[in-house]
Amino acid sequence: MTIQQLKYIVALDEERHFARAAEVCNVTQPGLTIQLKNLEEEIGIKIFDRTKVPLTPTKLGTQIIARAKKILREVNEIRDFVINEKNDLEGEVKLGVISTLSPYLVPLFIKSMKEAAPKMHFVIHEASTGQLMHDIETGALDVALMATPTGNPNLKEHHVFNEPFVAYLNENHPFAGKDFYELQASDKPELLLLQNEYCYNAQLLDICDIKEDRKISEQFSYDISSIETLKNLVRAQLGFAILPELSILNEREKHLFKPFKEPKPIREISLVVSDTFSKKLLLEKMSRAIWECLPDTLRKDFNYRKIQWNDSPYFINAIKGFM
Fold first, then answer.
1. SS3 state at 143
2. By the 8 A CB rule, do 39 and 97 touch?
């Protein structure tokens, strides 16, 4: 028994004519007749008395049709409920954001989202990539804003924007007076990484074409957990940093932040949800709110090279046992 078969017997009851019922159901008359026959054979009851003109339900058929109408009403109610839920812009949303993005984008996003969905309440949680992926899969978070692709088949990714990486140099660096930065072999051993930010670190290693080795691993002895600390270490001439562009928007020392030449290395930023997430309108509103609050430099077209992290041997080894 199918929903479509129930629709057919209700249409037959209303039209009392096979040809007209078939037209209402947008199906051929033979097709409708076959489906009615299949249903009657399945339940072992004749629903219509075909010997009478017009077509007339049997006594049991009348009861079955009444129940079919009730079921179809409930199906429509479920459909309406789902549509309303998908379009609902009220209630609480648990949003996770990677810690290398959160301090710079979230304040802008909140202001923009208040205008787009004033009745939504966002509970924002800052965490590492691995933790965000875990929390989305387990339901602890509804949405995560993070670098993609994740390579996880249980997650859906909705691309929002591309964020370029920039080099941050100290005042004595040979490229401090240049317009663009070109990777220097002498900078590689000085590259500063973040503690437990394996996704972010994997991207930096890729940009610098560095394989995991003792020199890079020793950087973790700094136990650095924030981009702001990286900046201060570079200012003190204690290392070299590659940073996401949003992290330098409010910096006064603009001349020490150098863009790469095109194609610029970028990280893809997306809204990530579980494969069962249904609030498409919410994602559209969030995506637009994020896009509209971005600086013009990130909304312009430019040639880029996407830096991935999920296939990095460094990331794979570092994340073992976490998930």
1. strand
2. no
Locate tokens 């990286």: which residue? 230
User: In the predicted model, what is the mean pLDDT of residues 62-68?
Assistant: 92
Residue 262, SS3 per DSSP: coil
The answer to whether residue 241 scores a pLDDT higher than 70 is: yes
User: Looking at residue 133, what is its pLDDT?
Assistant: 92
Q: Which residues pair with 266 in a beta bridge?
A: 164, 306
Residues 256 and 206: beta-carbon distance below 8 Å: no
Count CA atoms closer than 13 A to 15's CA, side-chain side: 15
User: CB-based contacts of 36: which residues, under 8 Å, 6+ apart?
Assistant: 5, 8, 9, 12, 47, 48
| Same-domain status, 75 and 108 | no
Cα-flanking dihedrals φ and ψ of residue 244, to 5°? Answer: -70, 145
Are residues 95 and 81 part of one domain? Answer: no
Token duo for residue 278: 């249904």
- Provide the pLDDT for residue 251: 82
56 in the same domain as 164: no
Contact 84, 282 (CB under 8 A): no
Which pLDDT score is estimated for 215?
47
**In what helix (H) or strand (E) does residue 71 lie, and over which residues does it extend?**
helix 59-87
Q: What is the pLDDT of residue 44?
A: 92
Domain boundary among 43, 69, 87: 87
Q: Name the pairing type of β-strands 143-148 and 264-274.
A: antiparallel
